């Protein structure tokens, strides 16, 4: 079974440009999460999809970030326009819905974003 | 809000040494607790988990026990190997279905031969 995949693995852009990150979850996983690790700090939650619906977007830093999951399969995270402080590693994770207990989240390898 | 505090690194040990990485948490209710590991050049992998008090998670020689009385989930291994060199993250998820993970800051572990 394929794991969570993310594309691209690295992206270097200039301040003010737009970047779109993609995440393909494990097939059949309804939950999809985006996280970010900035400058060696803790990994922070950005948002959570259940199928195509945004369940929790409390971690999105500002309106320059737009996440979509059309059709409830893959997801994209667009940053427009990018700022220097957006640099970091963006992780995607997916999990199944399993009753009242959180099921294991499986992570992708991450996209390293560098904004110059 | 919920939070996780992890032992600051980096940590450097010799092969076959005993390892402890401390992790404490603050949360309401009964969270699930996790240790994730990131090996060089790879993504995050679940190392072990515990979903209720006094549960012990174990994998690859690593162990951690969910201690509600001390709100802790310390990671231990009796004899580390060079291949254990990685960044280790403690995390929790709140009670109630699919919930976001709240992570500690990560501990970089280096094992010297």
Summarize the structure.
The complex is a heterodimer of chains A (116) and B (113). Chain A has 116 residues and is an all-beta fold.
Overview of the molecule:
The complex is a heterodimer of chains A (116) and B (113). Chain A is 0% helix and 48% strand. Chain A has strands spanning 5-7, 10-13, 19-24, 31-37, 43-50, 53-56, 65-68, 75-79, 88-95, 106-107, 111-115. In chain A, strands 2, 4, 5, 6, 9, 10 and 11 form a 7-stranded mixed β-sheet that branches. In chain A, strands 1-3-8-7 form a 4-stranded antiparallel β-sheet, with no helix packed on it. Chain B has 113 residues and is an all-beta fold. Chain B is built from no helices and 12 strands. Chain B has strands at residues 3-6, 11-14, 19-21, 23-26, 32-38, 44-50, 56-59, 62-65, 75-77, 86-93, 101-103, 107-112. In chain B, strands 2, 5, 6, 10, 11 and 12 form a 6-stranded mixed β-sheet that branches. Chain B has a 4-stranded antiparallel β-sheet with strand order 3-9-8-7, with no helix packed on it. A two-stranded antiparallel ribbon of chain B has the order 1-4. Chain B is globular and about 45 Å long. Chain A binds chain B through residues 4, 31, 33, 35, 37, 40-45, 48, 50, 55-56, 59, 91, 93, 95, 97-110, and chain B through 4, 32, 36, 42-46, 49, 51, 89, 91, 93-106.
Which helices and strands occur, and which strands form pairs?
The complex is a heterodimer of chains A (116) and B (113).
Chain A: E1 5-7, E2 10-13, E3 19-24, E4 31-37, E5 43-50, E6 53-56, E7 65-68, E8 75-79, E9 88-95, E10 106-107, E11 111-115
Parallel strand pairs in A: 2-11
Antiparallel strand pairs in A: 1-3, 3-8, 4-5, 4-9, 5-6, 7-8, 9-10, 9-11
Chain B: E1 3-6, E2 11-14, E3 19-21, E4 23-26, E5 32-38, E6 44-50, E7 56-59, E8 62-65, E9 75-77, E10 86-93, E11 101-103, E12 107-112
């Amino acid at each position: 079974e394929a794991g969570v995949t993310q594309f691209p693995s690295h992206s270097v852009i200039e301040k003010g440009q737009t970047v779109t990150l993609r995440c393909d979850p494990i097939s059949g996983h309804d939950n999809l999460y985006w996280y970010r690790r900035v400058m060696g700090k803790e990994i922070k939650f950005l948002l959570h999809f259940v199928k195509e619906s945004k369940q929790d977007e409390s971690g999105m830093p500002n309106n320059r970030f737009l996440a979509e999951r059309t059709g409830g399969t893959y997801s994209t995270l667009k940053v427009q326009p990018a700022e220097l402080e957006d640099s970091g590693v963006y992780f995607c994770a997916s999990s199944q819905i399993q009753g009242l207990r959180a099921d294991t989240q499986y992570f992708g390898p991450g996209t390293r974003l560098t904004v110059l | 809000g919920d939070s996780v505090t992890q032992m600051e690194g980096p940590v450097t040990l010799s092969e076959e040494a005993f390892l402890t990485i401390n992790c404490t948490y603050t949360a309401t209710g009964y969270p699930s607790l996790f240790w994730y590991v990131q090996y060089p050049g790879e993504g995050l992998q679940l190392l072990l988990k515990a979903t209720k008090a006094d549960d012990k998670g174990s994998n690859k020689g690593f162990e951690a026990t969910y201690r509600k009385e001390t709100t802790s989930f310390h990671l231990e291994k009796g004899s580390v190997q060079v291949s254990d060199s990685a960044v280790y993250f403690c995390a929790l998820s709140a009670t109630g279905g699919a919930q976001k993970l709240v992570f500690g800051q990560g501990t970089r572990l280096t094992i010297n031969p």
